[in-house]
## 1
Amino acid sequence: MIVITAASGQLGRATATALARQVAPSTVRLAARDPSKLAAFAAEGFEVVRADYDDPASLRAAFEGVETALVISGMGIDADRLRQHVAAIDAARAAGVTRVVYTSATHPTPESLFEWAGAHRETEAYLKASGLAWTILRDNAYASNNDGLYAHALQTGVFGLPGPDTRVAWVTHEDVADALAAALTGSGHEGRTYEITGPSALTGHEVAAELARLRGAPVEAVDVPLEAFAAHLAEAGLPPFVVSGVTSFYAALAAGEYAEVSGDVERLTGRPGTPLRAYLQARHAR
Ligand SMILES: NC(=O)c1ccc[n+]([C@@H]2O[C@H](COP(=O)([O-])OP(=O)(O)OC[C@H]3O[C@@H](n4cnc5c(N)ncnc54)[C@H](OP(=O)(O)O)[C@@H]3O)[C@@H](O)[C@H]2O)c1
């Protein structure tokens, strides 16, 4: 049995879909704090249970009888996330899980400008010291993070983000999910850390050129200072910790922390990663 925690999010759903191409849904348990969000998956034969990162007993129950657990990183300030991830790893060990697969992030170093990199770094260290077998997938920036910015650019011709001169190896949720499915079901992944990136790294200007192709009209990449970027997020109603965390993420992108391309998606899945052009065509063509 495989379990996925935080399964109601985009990545959890995409990974469940990817797993169902390889194994019977009845061998996959989807754990979410609100199981009703996964009713469609239950109807397809997945086991759906309740598990909240803030409720260790629910985690322990969700891990019962499980061989391999995918712990998808949570949402919140760093201290909360780390406590939640530690609770999940402890519950996995107590339930007799053999291997934990964890979704980390690119470049989780003390020097990172991304203020939530710390929870990833410390979770990685805690997992490695846990005595459990482990596999870590460090995800680059999700292509869908910019969906609002792409839509705005297609409407106005302005693609505004901090640091448009810097390359980012944007990766799709589907590529991450297929890589996770391979790491969950395949052998030889114990003690391995994979860098999950898109097949190339693009500057903001190159992304703007792709958007211009879709728009059939010019799109210009414009450098948005971090303070202005944070102000936009705050105006959109995001809570202060999210404004701060997301702004620090774009600062890390602008500093080049997410520029490196790895071949790990192709190595894990046996197929090339999805170019951002294909993602934009599929999600944003009008
Ligand atoms: N690399 C990147 O660019 C990037 C971008 C965004 C996020 N991330 C990280 O990657 C993870 C997966 O991304 P995603 O796109 O799937 O995010 P998402 O769609 O926002 O999903 C987040 C998931 O976390 C769950 N969750 C939050 N608090 C929880 C708790 N206390 N107990 C159990 N589940 C909890 C949510 O449950 P509910 O459905 O109940 O809310 C949801 O299922 C995120 O959680 C975040 O750590 C990475």
## 2
Amino acid sequence: MSTNAESPIALVTGGSRGIGRAVVLLLASRGWRVAFTWNSSPESARAVAEECGDAALALPLDLADRSGPARVVAEVEDRLGPITGLVNNAGVLDSRLLAMSSDEIWDRVIDLNLGGVFRCCRAVLPRMIRRRKGAIVNLASLAAIHGVAGLTAYSAAKAGVLGLTRSLAREVGGRNVRVNAVVLGYVETSMTSDLGEAVREKLRRDESLRQGVSPEMAAAAVAHLLSDDSSSTTGQQLVVDAGTSG
Ligand SMILES: NC(=O)c1ccc[n+]([C@@H]2O[C@H](COP(=O)([O-])OP(=O)(O)OC[C@H]3O[C@@H](n4cnc5c(N)ncnc54)[C@H](OP(=O)(O)O)[C@@H]3O)[C@@H](O)[C@H]2O)c1
């Protein structure tokens, strides 16, 4: 589908790989103009932008950068127009035992996965509130609900994302801005490629649906929560885990 000046505009963090890439491609195919960020993979980002034709704009953003989100949001609105959808997808996994975790590691995992969501929401919200229009989708993990040994910092950050989602939905619902989360089970991406074979087999065994969860299925849930099909839904978490937690 081609885009025009009336096409809605989304900002997706971490669109260079994995689930974020699938979100960018799906939104572009559905007529959105999409800005997406990359951190360490400029080549992958360029390839994703090329796949979208003229529907995508790729910008660098390190979530550790305090002023980065405000700069990116301003540039996207200058170049494309008003952002109506924000997808907080970028994240990092760190797998180690709590007793072996330094303060620096703990702070980094919480800051990137939770602080980054806070800063991106803060950058875009005044504009959405002023226009009385917007939808935010935050990527969370089953680890926030079920607990996974070795992922304490990541689980805590993602549980924080769920709390942020519910409270922020209360804050901005009256201004017609929706905030929801997609809670994912195991998805095969570069984030999970370092998990050992035994761990991955166990994760797959826990799923009821043999197809598992692909990046494209995760993207479909994100697109649903961004779209007007879910215009009465806010403060919710949509679990996409092939039945793991069922
Ligand atoms: N895969 C799973 O099983 C799973 C399960 C539950 C939840 N999730 C969540 O889904 C989201 C996407 O995960 P994924 O599996 O697609 O991960 P991925 O393949 O590792 O991709 C991560 C993305 O985040 C970006 N990123 C990493 N560090 C960043 C930083 N410091 N600043 C800004 N951007 C940064 C990367 O950009 P560059 O490539 O440019 O570095 C990349 O685009 C994450 O929030 C993750 O926690 C994933």
